[in-house]
Design a protein that fits this description.
Elements: H1 4-34, H2 45-67, H3 69-90, H4 92-96, H5 103-129
Helix pairs in contact: 1-2, 1-5, 2-3, 3-5
Amino acid sequence: MLGGRDRSGLRVRSAYALCLLVATCTHAVPLIQHGVFWDYGGANPVSVVFWTSLAVADPLAAACLFVWPRVGLALTSGIIGLDVLHNGVVFSDVLRHPSAVHLWTYTAFGLQLAFLLFVIATVRLAWSQAPGHGSVPPAA
């Protein structure tokens, strides 16, 4: 049986997975509505490829959090770090000039930033309690 400390790492990874699966929906819906080759209303091609790739990268990272926990932790940290950096640059003008028109952008970016801060605050705990490469799970 897992001790309380071991379960806290699993709970953190589960929270990451839940956030990644919500993000998967936000990236998959436009693809379902507009198709894989949609340009997000005229966005830069690099941004288009990045946002489209997240529809695959997010659920992949979520699965890895349980199959290969440390790989999943590294993917999760990289994905959310790049996402906040990318979106902060892409939406910098929108974020500097508040308007009710862009309420969804503020909300989405705020949630991404909150997830990044949560990952930064908890990834060391999750990493330290993740099964290491070649480790054998404890006997029941």
